[in-house]
Amino acid sequence: MRTEVKETAAADKRVITKKPELLAPAGNLEKLKIAVHYGADAVFIGGRDFGLRSNADNFSIQEMEEAVEFADRYGAEIYVTTNIFAHNENMEGLDVYLREIEAAGVRGIIVADPMIIETCKRVAPTLEVHLSTQQSLSNWQAVQFWKDEGLDRVVLAREVGMNEMLEMKRNVDIEIETFIHGAMCISYSGRCTLSNHMTARDSNRGGCCQSCRWDYFLYEDREDANAESGNALFAEEDAPFAMSPKDLNLVQSIPKLVDAGIDSLKVEGRMKSIHYVATVVSVYRKVIDAYCADPDNFTIDPEWLKELEKCANRPTAPAFFENTPGYEEQMFRNHKQKTPFDFSGLVLDYDADTGMVTLQQRNHFRPGDTVEFFGPEIERFSMTVGTIWDDEGNEIDAARHPLQVVTFKTDQPVYVHNMMRKEL
Amino acid sequence: MIKPELLVTPTSVENVEEVIDAGADAVMIGEERYGLRLAGEFDRTAVHEAVKLAHERGVKVYVAMNALFHNDTLPELPDYLAFLDKIGADAVVFGDPAVLMNAKQYAPKVELHWNTETTATNWYTANYWGRKGSARAVLARELNMDSVIEIKENAEVAIEVQVHGMTCMFQSKRTLVGNYMEFQGKDLGVEGRSKDRTLVLHDPERDVKYPIWEDWNGTHIMSPKDMCIIDELDELIDAEIDSFKIDGVLKDGAYIRDMTGLYRQAIDQYAAKPEEYIEEKEAWRDRALALQPDNRELDTGFFFKETVY
Ligand code: SF4
């Protein structure tokens, strides 16, 4: 895709008409629907086989059909990740599986292993084939190679920066997808077998147990000394050696990515909650739309940055976008950070006459709590919760039970699938 | 019986000579700028010398260009490949398709060996790269014996496996050792982060040490033990695996020379008198063990390991 700029003579204002695709993750149908509802143009999902993240909830073929049917109504696309590096024994059943995915109406698959690429072209030729980031695609000639191999799109290595992307776009006419938000490997993708060694789990077939995020101790090794004796390259008060990267966040760089004509902007996180997906997708939706509507007068609304922080479970950084990241983009000692907000409820219904919301509880809240509502139809607003009733009309002192259905009055109208969160 | 090629990664031109004396059939060398985790640094002059020396002795020279290349290095590839073609290097070891494309154009006489390290895991993909012009696939170290043999049975390209040495577990483009030192407020100019520093990460949970260093290609973390299957070569030889590699990374030249000699004898013994080799298996392991530095234990890598996912 090339960015198309329209000069509207009347308004004398530049408008970008060809927006990049906003691509969101979904671990199950509920998450998928939320992602689309909150503004994703496309969603990637995992199937039961041949994908990484073996422990993320994955879609059966029937669920894929449902997903496609739902997405079609909104003009959204579905891609299925089949990005393992297969071993001999994984080759069985692939033909049937790919044919089923094709028949389910999925747009394309995301693939790392040429075995799966070629099999797909043979047995399910109408599926688009996208090269997974697992191939760690880092230069434009390699991009050219995969284009010549007939791939429809490539997902770049996480190590590729903005200038490199521009060079790729200049040299090769192929769709480019890049990650804009979420957790990532600190290794080159596909080039880490820490988990294979440490826990006998194959990271390139979805078994990674994030061994890179554990603590280690750096020593200078000598034959005459063991690790405990005096060759430590840290003092007692120093944090241990760690390789935990901050999560990626390119919200500030969306204008550059749009201008570069990057075709698809991808959010990581099939295991993340609907609250996370909704928050991240809605912010990027706003940023992309605002920039494309009026690129010359665009500024980042600080509100967007604050929103993203509300669902972040780790600090974020731009990683390789401008430069090779330094220690500031890693985490030492504290690898985890608690999310500052709790997702406390999902709107099931709203009665405009009474101003009462019917809400499915997702986390504890009680009368007197300050909460905020957000969603694509409304401006975010805060309010104090008043009296809460359960689904039988009994007044309750708190919404305690997960998935419990409760009602109470909201200060402003809300819509189905809006979300309520509470500061911790 | 068809004997496999014994391939070694030496540390220097002198060491090339030593490992040839010790019985190597081929050596893999190269420079950090293009190749990953090499035992020694060979600039163009050294590569040229090694090729002359090896070819006089009927030994092959493979040059490592298996780095992950970014745009900025691409302009250097044609010249380097043309140089390798000119001096008669026997093969270029590649992982990145950019090298494959350039090699076809600038080094048409040089064979290609596909080596992406961790991702060469099935025979279909090995053959795929074969159709793209590769003569050989270097298998991932994370495969077990049965998978290796099944790949060989179905492969249309030569198959190389590592039989000895350290294996890589992790490569990052980030400067992780330097980052940690900088985080601690240390002066990076004074601190060394290269291979020479022999840095290790201690894993308190498993009580093992992983060698770690930084170079042009980023940060590398290696296996805590050296794999060694000098006592399990029979099945692989019977399966007609084409090449056995001894990886000399982070070892000195004498060790590499001696280990090469040991494998030479073991292979020759099995080829000549298989029963004797079978009987002597334990002795072969002991001989290898005797060469090990105290801080490096031996294991059998993933050859007999069950990996789940
Ligand atoms: S251990 Fe870390 S770097 Fe390695 S595959 Fe897992 S998440 Fe990625």
Automatic annotation (TrEMBL), chain B:
InterPro entries: Peptidase_U32, Pyrv/PenolPyrv_kinase-like_dom, RNA/ubiquinone_mod_enzymes. SUPFAM superfamilies: Phosphoenolpyruvate/pyruvate domain. The keyword Hydrolase applies. It comes from Salisediminibacterium halotolerans. This is Protease. Keywords: Hydrolase, Protease. The lineage of its organism: Bacteria, Bacillati, Bacillota, Bacilli, Bacillales. GO terms for molecular function: peptidase activity. It comes from the Bacteria. GO terms for biological process: proteolysis. It holds the Pfam family Peptidase_U32.
